[in-house]
Amino acid sequence: MTKIGIITGSVREGRVNLQVAEWVKELADKLNIDDAEFEIVDIKDYELPLFNEAMPPAMANKQYTSEDINRWSQKVDSLDGFIFITPEYNKSTSTVLKSQIDYLGPEFGNKPAGIVGYGSTLGVAATQSLRQILANFNVATVGPFGAFSLFTDFENMSTFKPAEVHTATIEAVVTTTANWAKAFKTIR
Q1: Is 128 exposed, middle or buried, given 0-12, 13-18 or 19+ CB atoms closer than 10 A?
Q2: What share of the chain is helix, strand, coil (3-state, %, to 5)?
Q3: What is the number of other CB atoms lying within 10 angstroms of the CB of residue 170?
Q4: pLDDT in tens, 127-139
Q5: Are the beta carbons of 81 and 109 closer than 8 angstroms?
């Protein structure tokens, strides 16, 4: 079974991130892709302190000393691919998502990722920022990416109500990520 984690990118109170992740998962499940299983991985369940180390423990050949970091490491390691749901804050991805990624290293490597962004400018800058971050960990990001507007895809900027026009793009993100994840198993 190919396991794809739909990773949330926000932990703040009143976040809409989880709504987007749930919608993407529902759509992914409806696609019924052979040998692909999707699950939401809420970073709030693995909330770690802000990364403030000289380098990630795995890269320094140290064991993870925190049970929370161990759980996060094991979860990411168990996945074959990712779909990141990222808000756009100040033309970048969220600090908390960047920090969660920074804690690890090899667990992300040689796996594909799709990205779904949202914000006042469709989350495009956050998507580009996240692509650069992931490239450092040898994560291949798929070509299509999702882009939702806080003004048109969210009611009162708080309730996710995506326009139908986005469905085909998100289906492409999901399908491409799942197909790449299957293929990437051969190099890990």
Answers
A1: middle
A2: 40, 20, 40
A3: 24
A4: 999 999 999 999 9
A5: no
CA–CA separation, 95 and 88 (whole Å): 10
Question: Is residue 149 within 8 Å of 122, Cβ to Cβ?
Answer: yes
- Tell me the C-alpha distance between 112 and 139, whole Å: 5
Tokens 């064991």 belong to 63
* CB atoms near residue 96 (< 10 Å): 21
Does the predicted model carry a pTM greater than 0.90?
yes
**In the block, residue with structure tokens 């990205």:** 115
CATH (residue range 2-187): 3.40.50.360
> If you count them, how many residues does the chain have?
188
